[in-house]
Amino acid sequence: MITVNNLSLRYGKRTLFEDVNLKFTSGNCYGIIGANGAGKSTFLKILQGEVDPTTGQIAFTKGMRVAVLKQNHFEYDEVQVLETVLMGHKPLYQLMKDKEALYAKEDFTEEDGNKAAEMEQQFGEMGGWDAENSAAELLSNLGISEDLHYKTVKELDGNQKVRVLLAQALYGNPDILFLDEPTNDLDVHTINWLEDFLADYQGIILVVSHDRHFLDAVCTNICDIDFGKMTIYSGNYSFWYQSSQLVARQKADANKKAEDRIKELQDFIRRFSANASKSRQATSRKKALDKINLEDIKPSSRKYPAIMFNNVLRDAGNEILDVQKLSKTANGELLFSNVTFNVKRGDKIALVCKNSLAITAFLNILAGDDKDFTGTFSWGVTTTVASIPNDNHKYFEDVDANLIDWLRQYSPDEKDETFIRGFLGKMLFSGEEVLKNCNVLSEKKKMRCMFSRMMLMRGNVLLLDEPTNHLDLESITALNNGMKDFKGTIIFSSRDHELTETIATRVIELSPYGMIDKEMTFDEYINSDRVDEQRQQLLGPNYFKL
User: Fold this and answer.
1) What is the mean pLDDT of residues 458-487?
2) Which residue, 2, 84, 265, 417, could crosslink 24 as a Cys pair with Cβ 3.0–4.6 Å?
3) Does residue 302 lie in a domain region?
4) Domain span at residue 14?
């Protein structure tokens, strides 16, 4: 158990949270959520002892071993991959090093022999004889092949380093796991493996993540940082979001009777409990939901931007996009080849590829930003294309303008300040904030500006390359809803599983050896044996599982 008593954290006059009293118990996974800057990662650092609270105490049950997913990807650069994983179990690793030092002594005595015997017994009891095999199996499950196990960490690429650090955190079944954005840079199958691993994990997990699908798959509880307080709710992220939205709507309806509000909440919990019985965390989550106190459900103070795309300049006709034998090479590397397909009105196409640079190059070609390719493509005469690129730097570099003037340049007709402010307001820019110079904006706010620009352009076709980058959970949810409601055509890429699964009606996979094109949902695609067989035929010895 982890017990938090009277915890407060203040920076000058700013209070992140005050008088926090919580208990985290074994067998549960707690998703730590809150608006950007609320203190999610800081709270994890307090629990780890890296940040001192202003007031309060943290107590761990004696003897519980804690593991942390390290964020410093260079800390173990000079260490062998397999050894880096073994270092995750500190007591066992220290015993291994002590044994090595003892056996290396030149003047080995009888006393040393007795000590060595004790250490060997302890080593066996801790599972030391299977340590390397267990670490190797964990690495393989996370996509690190055996030929990499004895290389140094610095020889791996960024994605592989993340997997090694994750293996280090998971190794040896620690009693408590602290995971800050564990799905970053993981492919969908590795994430699925991690979800299964954590669903069966019997210790305490505290996780910070912007991946809603992951939070739903692993969390039994949500710990919400709001109003300067921290509150634990039963259920996963979707339950917290939907219930808080329901209570907020009820609160706004002054005419709704108390008994009607209670019945509506009871019906909601009953429906969600039934769905919970099908999830990975079925038993514990359903029991928690069955016991929930209606008074515990509170409306959130979060503000959600209004991302809406349906106010198009005109409806598109039946001819949307025709692509014929499109290929692209960059820096001597063939990114994709022989891409041929036709887009129908209303298609919502998810682009997937092992190489994210290929998707960015493909979308840049369709947006007209890249002329260096072979093959052809043509947009229908009634199409109006609006796009969000992967890199929006060119829209802000060397621009000396406030937000109103910056957005005004993208307005096709209306230039009135009140009109422009309206689009900025939809993305939560208000008051004096719209007079800020766009050069000083954070990456998150620049993305919100780009969505204001996109809505202003009123396109009937949307091109979106990793649109959730730098967004908080509230903005990701708003974007997801906006894309779901959009009646036009979308071609997009995203690492957000929930967004891709709920939006895509068609999946196109790019590769240097050709393409795969299927009308199905994302989950159907990644779990399809027929698609996997087609990929093997297409890629041959270069085959990989998406």
Assistant:
1) 94
2) 2
3) no
4) 2-64+211-296
Contact indicator for 464, 492 with CB cutoff of 8 Å: yes
237, 160: one domain: no
What is the number of other CB atoms lying within 10 angstroms of the CB of residue 481? 15
The answer to whether residue 72 scores a pLDDT higher than 90 is no
The residues near 215 (Cβ < 8 Å, ≥ 6 apart) are 31, 33, 207, 209, 222, 236, 237
Instruction: Please report how the helices 417-426 and 443-457 are oriented relative to each other, as an axis angle in degrees rounded to 10.
Output: 120
Looking at the structure, do residues 377 and 285 belong to the same domain, yes or no? no
Rounded distance between C-alpha atoms, residue 163 and residue 68, angstroms: 13
Q: 401 is written with which tokens?
A: 């303008």
Residue 120 C-beta-side C-alpha neighbours within 13 Å: 8
Contact 476, 210 (CB under 8 A): yes
Establish if 203 belongs to a structural domain: no
- pTM of the entire structure? 0.83
Q: Residue 198 domain-assigned?
A: no
| Nearby residues of 250 by Cβ (< 8 Å), 6 or more positions away | 256, 261, 264, 265
Give CA–CA dist 257/278, Å, rounded.
33
395 and 249 share one domain: no
The per-residue DSSP string of 312-344 comes to -SS---S--EEEEEEEEEETTEEEEEEEEEEEP
